Amino acid sequence: MPTILASMRFGESPERVPGMASAGGIRMSVAAWTAAGLLVYGILLQVSCGGRIDSDGANSALQAWDLIHGHVLLHGWLLGDATFYAFELPVNGAAELLLGLGPQAAHAASAAAYLIVVALAVVLAVTDSRGAARVARSAVTVTILAVPLLTMLTVSALVEEPDHAGTAAFLLAAALLIDRCRGRWFTAPLVCLLLCAGELSDATVLYVGVPAIVLACLYRMLAARQLRSADAAVAVAAIASALLAPAIRALEVHLGGYLMVAPNTEIAPLSQWPGHVPAVWLVIRYLFGAVPRPDTTLVIGGVLGMLGLAAAVAGLARVAWTWRRASAAERVLALIIVFNIGAFLAGRPTPSGAHEIAVVLPCAAVLAARLVPAGIGGRVRGYAALAVTVLLALVPLSAAASRPNAGPALGPAPGDSESGPTRPLTAWLRAHDYTYGLSSYWSSSVVTLESGGDVNVRAITLVRDGVGPGAHWQVRAPSWEANALWYDPALHDATFVAAFRTGRYRVATYERAFGKPAAIYPVGSTWLVMDYKANLLTRLLPRMPMGKGPKS
Known about the structure:
Blueprint: H1 23-49, H2 55-68, E1 77-79, H3 88-99, H4 103-125, H5 131-146, H6 152-158, H7 168-180, H8 187-201, H9 203-224, H10 230-254, E2 259-260, H11 273-287, H12 301-321, H13 328-346, H14 360-369, H15 379-401, H16 423-431, E3 436-440, H17 445-450, E4 456-464, E5 473-476, E6 482-483, E7 496-500, H18 507-514, E8 519-523, E9 527-531
Parallel strand pairs: 1-2, 3-4, 3-7
Antiparallel strand pairs: 1-6, 4-5, 7-9, 8-9
Helix pairs in contact: 1-4, 1-15, 2-3, 3-4, 4-5, 4-7, 4-14, 5-14, 5-15, 7-8, 7-13, 8-9, 8-10, 9-10, 9-13, 11-13, 12-14, 13-14
């Protein structure tokens, strides 16, 4: 979103804008876009630093750390149903190369990943526009993508850690190729590679992106009555990606690569779908920031969210109404929105499921921005449109960046009985030279990240050994989002447990599994550190099968 484009004269046709093709004009345009990108990145970084990092995000950072240290296949890792292997992890790794292992790199990577999504959405939105309209479309796109950052609920789904928002990068990039490079020899192969990489990262690309691209291309083929065409090549490439990705995964596993939990593809009975509509509508409103909450940092935030949602609905309706004249990218983005919301409706939607439809937000932002005419005639009208849209973008961005910090590291939610702020625990363990130990999932890898790897805390999970009042908690290694090598007693020596004062993960639970500790040290009002003189990894029960057992 360039806030200044000195080379533009609003209201003039492209051929009359002086310097458009000159080296000076190009340099000024590049400088303006670069300055705008840096401004938006700085704000996104501030927003991310104001959020929290939990053990999910910390595990992604540790996976990226392994990647940049040569463990390309992530040997030993047991990942969840979305790996983020081909986008967020490399972005995390790049940040860690510059900043080292720690919360700063994780925040920088989260902001960078969202900036890439924003940039791709802006490039798609400004297609065929010029002058003031180009800036206005950019500002509308950024506004819709910025308003959800006013509320912590959606901040956690967009810029705190990998949580499906980055998946939009694959879909937007594919739509951009189809829109801008149709008929080029490299378009179909690149679309295939993009989708394949996306499918290795997140099943959303397979179940939403691939059908959307194939259907959009089939329509163009039928409308043109050409079976052998550029659209046919892209459709074949999309289908081929769905075959190539499993083959690559099989090869990775054969070579000793990471294991992952199978994505949940359960579909609810058709009779339940109507009952899901209110929950889906609520989540959509959450995603656009259209539901005011106590932690929303702007009084009119909910109003801006509703305006953005209304514009998105209008943009989608425009594409449906003008389907025959719509561009290839508009058709693809509209189908992605419909398929993603449809899949969410057909599953088992919950009010906290905004991350499940995160790709809807940037796709809808593009369609909303394209409501702005490609050209805005008249200098006064051009400057007025520019001023209004740029202010609309800057208001939510600046308000989101002003939120007090909630981090740098917390469990899944403030007040959760099985989590707590981990900074005091990290500081105490470092000060007392503890280097390897165990704790609950939400209090483990995040400590490792906070300490920059000086203190390694590995997750353990509790599973009941039966039913009824006589059942006890068994302490096991977790079955996902962990590295199996962490629990090898021949490689590591775990000598402490960080227990909660209350809840399941308290001292009594661990004493039943590991015996009495040599000493117990209180840390703040939340923690008790149990010191052992033996390697606790030798006393852990085997982990559950992949994807089984709680992640807590």
